[in-house]
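Hi all, posting the design record for the shared folder.

TITLE: backbone redesign
STEP: 1 of 1
STRUCTURE INPUT:
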């Protein structure tokens, strides 16, 4: 356990061995450029807890983006956590494994194993960490949004089949920010798809990870934000997920901005509207 520079407490995600892992030297590295810390080659997952001065019981597991190739760890992770602390939300930034054949037996399932374990860990320690076990959400940006959406729609699928723990893996709410939702080749972000499942995946696997196809009436309430001019992850990703929520009578709120491009983080400078304020209002209404 260590305290990071951003005042968070970093902990191992798994108490024992990391599942689906190939023993290999840890080659994780990070660079800082354009005010963003990019972490690459993650093979040892961790979770960093940010506790508010006055907790309101809500918790969010945050999955930074980066195309399943890197993690934009501060821009789409620790800075979001610190802002949420101001709202009374306990935030957990997930440093999930990045898919690589050399470090995982099945690279496609590694990130989901980590997201599910993060939810499990927060729920099991809810009392100790000042969290309501029924108010634990997941949030993700871009490819991290794909991971969050996968956890949002696949909570009955046990990614780590060897784990006998029966703690619920269902997030109580979901926050998807310019997310990669679909692996449909007409709208997907090909880099994210190819990094996770490869360019020649079967239709079955492609559909499994196309989260708009996996929404059911049991999918948790979802908040989406995206820009119409996103040239990296087409806005159609969020629209399809929203439509699937409406079809299945899942409460969903979506904010689409005409401009903002991809990866605007907390602040879309093309508008005076603050999407984080919209999110705060939405979260305050969640029961």
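Okay, here is what came back for every position:
SEQUENCE:
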């Amino acid at each position: 356990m260590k305290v990071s520079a951003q005042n968070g407490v970093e902990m191992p995600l798994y108490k024992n061995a990391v599942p689906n892992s190939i023993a290999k030297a840890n080659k994780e590295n990070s660079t800082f450029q354009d005010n963003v810390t990019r972490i690459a080659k993650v093979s040892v997952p961790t979770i960093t807890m940010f506790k508010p001065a006055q907790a309101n019981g809500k918790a969010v597991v945050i999955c930074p983006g980066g195309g399943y190739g890197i993690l934009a760890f501060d821009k789409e992770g620790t800075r979001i956590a610190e802002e949420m602390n101001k709202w009374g939300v306990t935030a957990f930034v997930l440093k999930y494994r990045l898919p690589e054949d050399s470090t995982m037996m099945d690279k496609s399932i590694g990130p989901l194993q980590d997201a599910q374990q993060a939810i499990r860990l927060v729920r099991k320690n809810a009392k100790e960490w000042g969290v309501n076990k029924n108010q634990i959400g997941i949030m993700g940006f871009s490819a991290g949004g794909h991971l969050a959406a996968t956890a949002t729609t696949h909570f009955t699928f046990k990614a780590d089949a060897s784990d006998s723990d029966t703690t619920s893996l269902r997030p109580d709410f979901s926050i998807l920010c310019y997310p990669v939702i679909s692996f449909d080749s007409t709208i997907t972000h090909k880099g994210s798809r190819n990094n996770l499942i490869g360019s020649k995946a079967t239709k079955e696997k492609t559909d499994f990870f196309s989260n708009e196809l996996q929404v059911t009436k049991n999918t948790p309430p979802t908040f989406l934000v995206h820009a119409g001019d996103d040239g990296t992850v087409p806005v159609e990703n969020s629209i399809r997920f929203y439509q699937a929520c409406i079809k299945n009578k899942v409460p969903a709120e979506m904010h689409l901005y005409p401009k903002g491009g991809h990866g605007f983080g907390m602040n879309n400078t093309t508008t005076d509207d603050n999407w984080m304020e919209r999110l705060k209002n939405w979260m305050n209404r969640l029961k």
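COMMENT: The chain has one domain: 2-157+164-285.
Let me know if anyone wants the other runs.
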